[in-house]
Design a protein that fits this description.
CATH superfamily of one domain: Winged helix-like DNA-binding domain superfamily/Winged helix DNA-binding domain
CATH class of one domain: Mainly Alpha
CATH topology of one domain: Arc Repressor Mutant, subunit A
Oligomer: single chain
CATH architecture of one domain: Orthogonal Bundle
Structural class: mainly alpha
Number of strands: 0
Radius of gyration: 30 Å
Helix content: over 70%
Distance between the termini: 68 Å
Shape: elongated
Length: 558
């Protein structure tokens, strides 16, 4: 759709001028339409074909992009071998990123030019980018770091902003993967400054934004991920006709909102991402469906969650570990057992495994496979120690706390749970903060600290209720009932005395309690006297606190 700013020209001779003006103003839809019209009237030259290709990419017309860039390559071939090689390299790289490996022969052509022609050193540096990506995906951090260093040096020598920015950000990712997190993020920050200052081409800018945000999210550097996602959003919003990257930006926003407990907003952004792809007649984003599934699972809308996980899978996105956690919540452990083992076993990308290991540990503890859970916890802890980010440390401590409880070491579990809670609370991740308080409550109960257990459970229930986390709220309520019953039994209260005390805690008078339990007022008074004696207290409020009745109910006691 052509914007209101740049009107379509009426004369064919003006079309190319209008195309250039729209391109300069980053009105990508207008630029694409005008370049395409000019190309129909008279075959475009190599430079204009490159600009047509760029505009096509940015409005989500991938096949038009590939076609125009192929033509630009052929047009440059007889006149400027360096530019032809660059087009071939870009073509191969973008086909590779699009998953079209069989068609990604552009790199081979570019390599052949580099090998046979002198003076293509800058283009040779550009061809290192796919090599570095492969090394990063294999976890070969040292080799990736060395190769990226070579590419950066070439880019600096020839003043190639795109090559410098891309290779430098790959260098940063290699450092992070190797555990040099501070140095790695320092490089990524430097790259992002270059990107925001518009010294990098539009396509490379979008690719780097997405890659850097993904790198931050892989190691759970939440604050940085949020900062750069906001920057990407601002970049996208400044180009209303931009389709490429805008949907991905919305998915990143949804992921961060979910983490921060803003579940309605997260679902809204994920839906917007799907709509954005649909506007351009592009394949829907599997990641956007996955985010919607996650919100539904956390809220307890299991049918909707299952459908969204299915949509994610059909659109090329792995629905694990969310689907396995859904099956666990549904009580279908056997169904998911093979899936969680398969996905963890098949993943050799260290960064990818950080997303899978917490769910693996939780699932294996639930099915009683302690040894498998212990291995997952150990690997997660080693990864957290190596990378040193707060959120990874919290994830590792939470998993270790659950393992310690399963192994009967309540004291260690309590210490780990409280360590995890401090991080979740500081980083504003309310759902995980509430879940870890459940673990702390279980640990307190195992240590015969009924009051401490109740305080932890009350805090967890309040947060689950605020979030709308129905499954976890029900689990917390069940644990709360067990804790109160255990406390009552420990103090020697009879079932009837516990009934009386629970009604007292809701604010009911002696007369109201007598009517509800079909007792006389004197019988209720006798039960209360027995309760006070057994608990060694003298007031109703003190009795309720002693066995840990619900805090909100205690406020109404008279």
């Amino acid at each position: 759709m052509v914007s209101e700013v740049t009107k379509p020209p009426t004369e064919t001779t003006d079309v190319l001028v209008a195309a250039g003006a729209a391109y300069a103003k980053r009105e990508w839809s207008a630029a694409y339409e005008c370049f395409a019209r000019a190309d129909k009237a008279a075959r475009l030259g190599a430079d204009d074909l490159e600009r047509l290709a760029t505009a096509a990419y940015l409005v989500g017309k991938d096949e038009k992009f590939f076609s125009a860039l192929e033509r630009a390559y052929r047009a440059h071939l007889g006149e400027d071998i360096a530019l032809a090689t660059r087009c071939a390299g870009w073509l191969g790289l973008c086909l590779l990123f699009a998953g079209k490996v069989a068609r990604a022969n552009g790199r081979a052509r570019a390599q052949a030019h580099v090998d046979s022609q002198a003076g293509l050193d800058a283009e040779a540096g550009f061809l290192l980018i796919p090599q570095i990506e492969r090394q990063l995906s294999e976890g070969d951090w040292k080799t990736a770091e060395a190769t990226a260093g070579r590419a950066v040096a070439i880019g600096e020598k020839y003043g190639d902003a795109d090559l410098c920015a891309c290779a430098r950000h790959q260098h940063g990712r290699a450092l992070i993967g190797a555990g040099n997190v501070d140095r790695g993020f320092a490089l990524l920050d430097q790259v992002m400054l270059d990107v925001t200052e518009r010294t990098v081409s539009p396509i490379m800018t979008g690719l780097i934004y997405c890659s850097v945000i993904d790198a931050c999210q892989q190691v759970y550097a939440v604050a940085r991920a949020r900062e750069w996602t906001d920057a990407l959003a601002a970049w996208c919003e400044a180009q209303p006709q931009l389709i490429a990257f805008s949907g991905t930006c919305l998915v990143h926003r949804a992921e961060l909102m979910q983490l921060n407990g803003k579940w309605p907003d997260a679902a809204h952004e994920a839906r917007r991402a799907c709509e954005r792809f649909a506007e351009a007649s592009l394949r829907p984003s599997g990641a956007a469906f996955y985010q919607q599934a996650e919100v539904c699972r956390l809220r307890g809308d299991f049918n909707a969650a299952e459908e969204f996980y299915r949509e994610a899978s059909q659109n090329g996105f792995e629905p694990q570990p969310g689907l396995a956690l859904l099956r666990l919540a549904q009580g279908k452990k056997d169904v998911a057992h093979g899936s969680i083992r398969r996905i963890v076993g098949a993943s050799d990308d260290p960064m990818q495994r950080t997303r899978l290991l917490p769910a693996c540990a939780e699932f294996m503890l639930a099915v009683g496979e302690i040894d498998v859970a212990r291995n997952a916890c150990r690997e997660l802890t080693e990864m957290a120690d190596r990378l040193g980010t707060d959120v990874l440390a919290a994830m590792a401590a939470q998993a270790e706390a659950a393992l310690a409880l399963a192994e009967g070491d309540a004291q260690r579990a309590l210490g780990l749970a409280r360590k995890a809670f401090r991080i979740w609370d500081r980083t504003e991740v309310p759902y995980e903060a509430a879940r870890v308080r459940l673990l702390a409550g279980k640990a307190c109960r195992a240590l015969d600290d009924g009051e401490g257990a109740q305080l932890e459970l009350e805090a967890a229930m309040a947060m689950f209720e605020k979030l709308g986390a129905a499954p976890e709220l029900e689990r917390a309520k069940a644990l709360d009932r067990e804790t109160r019953s255990s406390s009552a039994e420990m103090h020697g209260l009879t079932p009837r005395e516990l009934e009386v005390l629970q009604l007292v805690a809701t604010g009911k008078t002696t007369k109201a309690i007598a009517a509800e339990l079909f007792l006389s007022d004197k019988t209720v008074d006798r039960h209360l006297s027995n309760i006070f004696n057994k608990l060694d207290v003298s007031t109703r409020t003190a009795a309720a606190i002693r066995i840990g009745t619900n805090a909100s109910a205690r406020k109404t006691i008279r």
